[in-house]
């Protein structure tokens, strides 16, 4: 299978991650078809429209007729379509279950066993880990949000189907044509630039982080090393960025010195996940991230010179 003849189907390809990934796949010479419902009225794929190998379909990832048609020519399937994040899933619980789980289940049922699937999930599936003990891919999955639950169930279906790789993404940060300012690092940097301050809830809770461009590089790495990586999950994050919210604030302060953070003595964050993660399995395949947290913060500072808040979020 040569790159020029390989056809990649990306559901949700106009989203935060998909709009970066789709362009990189085209730049590599792949044929790319994006299925998206454009629920955020985004124009993030405009720079792809001039590519002969690019097709875009406005539709629903739960529509069996649409999927059946698009799967006929696909060699690689990347199901990105999802209601992403705990707040959005709590707002539309039916949509969360039908999009995040049932649509993936349908895709696995309709696809041929020869078609390769690379599926992103979330390392929030680890829920609350043991203090000081990194979660590996063998750690128990104990999601504490509907978002985490639906992604864990979908991952199980994909791995049981076979000929697939799942990527358990850390909290993603960085700039995208379909920007999201509600992600933790992106949000805190926005507040540092605009408000010069943030009030932190559950400041001790730790999580792992990864830049969006390194996530895209992970997908490309998985395509290139599919045979040796297939049928396993992989944590995708920065080994030196297992940080609490307060520790994240201190990193931002090194680049934006006027930024101050306050931990709220009362109140709570509904997202109570708290864990650290080992990314050793992915590292062992030869993948190394290129984007540090500091580099991503500098990128975001430039981004926030250009855009203003409002439409750049999932909720």
From TrEMBL:
Gene3D superfamilies: NAD(P)-binding Rossmann-like Domain (3.40.50.720). Its EC number is 5.1.3.2. It holds the Pfam family Epimerase. Keywords: Isomerase. It comes from Nitrospira defluvii. This is Putative UDP-glucose 4-epimerase. Signal peptide: none annotated. It comes from the Bacteria. InterPro entries: Epimerase_deHydtase (IPR001509), Lipid_A_modif_metabolic_enz (IPR050177), NAD(P)-bd_dom_sf (IPR036291). Transmembrane segments: none annotated. The lineage of its organism: Bacteria, Pseudomonadati, Nitrospirota, Nitrospiria, Nitrospirales. Residues 8-237 form the NAD-dependent epimerase/dehydratase domain. GO terms for molecular function: UDP-glucose 4-epimerase activity. It is an enzyme of class 5 (isomerase). SUPFAM superfamilies: NAD(P)-binding Rossmann-fold domains (SSF51735).
